[in-house]
Amino acid sequence: MAKISKSVREKRKDFAKTKLKVGKSRQLPANHTDTSFRSKAVVLPKQSVTQEANVKELQTLSHLLALLSHKSGDTRKDALQQLTAHLAANPPRLSTIVTPVMKALCPLIIDDTTSVRKQLLEILNSVLSKLPRQTLNTHVRLLLLYVSSAMTHISPSIRADSTKYLDWTMKNSNAVEIIIADQLPQYMNTFATLFGWIRPSNGIGNNRVLSFHLSCFHYFLNAVLHEDATVVPDVLELTIPLSYGKDIFIPHRATQYMIQNCQALNLFSFTTSNSADASNFDSIEPHMQPLLKYMSDKFIDSVNGDRSLCTPILHIMKTLVSSPLIRHSDDCKATLRTIGRGIDNIDESVGRGFVQGVIGEWRLIKEELG
């Protein structure tokens, strides 16, 4: 048998499978290049324990906010409870995350689960009320949108809780100023629908709920009718000190004469008919007659039965009577006569044999009308 040459054996050796032995590593190829390296330290400037904690916190917050739109009411309630505890434990960061929080919380005002709305009030009163008014002012319009929807909601339980959110919004932000600026007619119609002085069938049967509605309406009405700038002078005096700038220009000798003519023409008069405050009364005046009739009927029913409604109705009437807008309006006399007729109806209905307590307060209001 012919012997295999050495060159042939070398060629076959390249294709032969090497048997590996236990405990020994594979033989490296001849052209292997070692790329391993050693380093004493690896510095990552952006790596920190605090940043990792912040990321975890944001992930927790995002998860809780996402659960607020869960289809289960119990899940939404539990998420609100956890969110309340989470925000209460991190008060310094609250002002930086208030925007996503408010966007997630506002739709819960019209949530159909009572426990969710109750927990929403808890987080508003215990956590968000501590924020500065300037921070909440940027979210007032969103709050008012959902509050108005709740006040006219088809569900009685949502309507019953609606003024709680309105009361919180008015006391913790500039909601009153925004309502007066461009939403006053809308909110007067909303209150009319809520109380039912336009449609009696939509009235409120629970006196406890009605009492809070009346208290909130009194706060609203008092803020609208008793603004700081409502009492204005009949004529604004126009004076130009001619001594000012005498070294710069020489005033014309007829300047003072022309100013006096302008004052005589009453061109600078400032009455409620041309002031911005007059619009407040114009928005309330159409509701005055049904409002007074509604208040009179509720007061009579309360005096004859449960008298828990007497005090809030009394406060509303005092606000209407003492309002500078009504006192200085063009229709002041007609409005006051309307209020007087409402009080006379109460005197005729329940005044006989009952001249103490709240009825005595009605008499004081009547005397104030003159």
TrEMBL record:
Main subcellular location: nucleus
Pfam family for this entry, one: Ipi1_N
Chain residue ranges for the region called Disordered: 1-34
GO CC terms: nucleus; rixosome complex
Ranges annotated as biased composition (Basic and acidic residues): 7-17
SUPFAM superfamilies linked: ARM repeat
Pre-rRNA-processing protein Ipi1 N-terminal domain residues: 135-199
Localization in the cell: Nucleus
Gene Ontology biological process: rRNA processing
Keyword terms of this UniProt record: Nucleus, Ribosome biogenesis, rRNA processing
Function: Component of the RIX1 complex required for processing of ITS2 sequences from 35S pre-rRNA.
Assembly information from the UniProt record: Component of the RIX1 complex.
Membership in a protein family: Belongs to the IPI1/TEX10 family.
UniProt-recorded name of the protein: Pre-rRNA-processing protein
Organism in which the protein naturally occurs: Taphrina deformans (strain PYCC 5710 / ATCC 11124 / CBS 356.35 / IMI 108563 / JCM 9778 / NBRC 8474) (Peach leaf curl fungus)
